[in-house]
Amino acid sequence: MEPELSVYVRGDPDSIDAGQVLAGLRSLLALLGALQPPRAGGQHVAWRFSKLRLNSVETQIAALDMPPGIDADSVDAMFQALVRGIHVTETAIQVPSGWNAAAVDAALKASDALSSATAAGTEIGLVHDDSSRVVLTAQTAKNLKALRVRRSSIGSVIGHLESLTLHQKRECAIWTDRRGERVVVKFGPEQQLSVQQAMGKRVQARGVLQRDYRGRPMVLDLAALEILPEPDQGRLLSEAAGEFPDFTGGVSVRAYLESVRGTS
Asked: Which superkingdom is the protein from (predicted)?
């Protein structure tokens, strides 16, 4: 028996916003894509409606085509992860186990659309397993949105200072060394000169740092700025000329390198 996911939008069909339902279903499919194991080599499961009732918004979703590395057990695990995750987000402000950032974003879009389509909620569960059913409501969307609220703490970022803006607001940006992420830096008029002098250089900026729900740095209110040396890129061979006179045995560098190649 193939795994199937049941989606039933509660409420009078005459009062349900069809456009929001379609948007919600698309986002649920995107959520399944985010929960797919990585062993498929970048390919994604194609989905089909194994059941579609026209007199009400009731569907069942099953796999249409599975890429190499994905089987029925994989699809069943994806369905279970979706249902368990929605149960978690319906009752708590937390990221469900096994969900990544893409899954959270897709779930937010799905819950936002489906809760706008009907106030009665949307039942989601595994076909042939009534105990797995959960009801997605506006509370799911509310909890997921709360995850996205920025959290502030004292912190610092290291990277290159770029993109200075002085028109209507004083801002610049740091591209971080570790992940190459863009962090907006806000500063006051008394800090403008030091910021301008540090443009294009590698710096450490300290202050009140706002992070998103994923923990990624987003905005820093600048308190202190320090210019740092560039990371050591190593030295060229030509820069070491004359430092080790006996290294080549008295022959030229070219002759030495040719002799080394000849022995490899």
From this structure: Bacteria
User: Does the predicted model carry a pTM greater than 0.70?
Assistant: no
| CATH, domain range 151-227 | 2.40.50.140
Domain boundaries, the chain: 5-147, 151-227
Packing angle between helix 18-35 and helix 72-91, nearest 10 degrees?
A: 120
| Rounded (5°) CA angle 204-207-213 | 100
| Residue among 172, 185, 98, 93 at smallest CA distance from 140 | 93
DSSP bridge pairs for 49:
61
Distance between CA 203 and CA 157 in Å, rounded?
A: 8
Q: Per-residue confidence of the chain (264 residues) as pLDDT tens digits?
A: 899 999 999 988 888 999 999 999 999 999 999 999 877 667 889 999 999 886 668 999 999 999 998 999 999 999 999 999 999 999 998 889 888 878 999 999 999 999 999 999 999 999 988 888 999 999 999 999 888 776 788 999 999 999 898 888 899 999 999 888 899 999 999 999 999 999 999 999 999 998 877 778 889 999 999 999 987 655 555 555 555 556 666 667 677 677 766 654
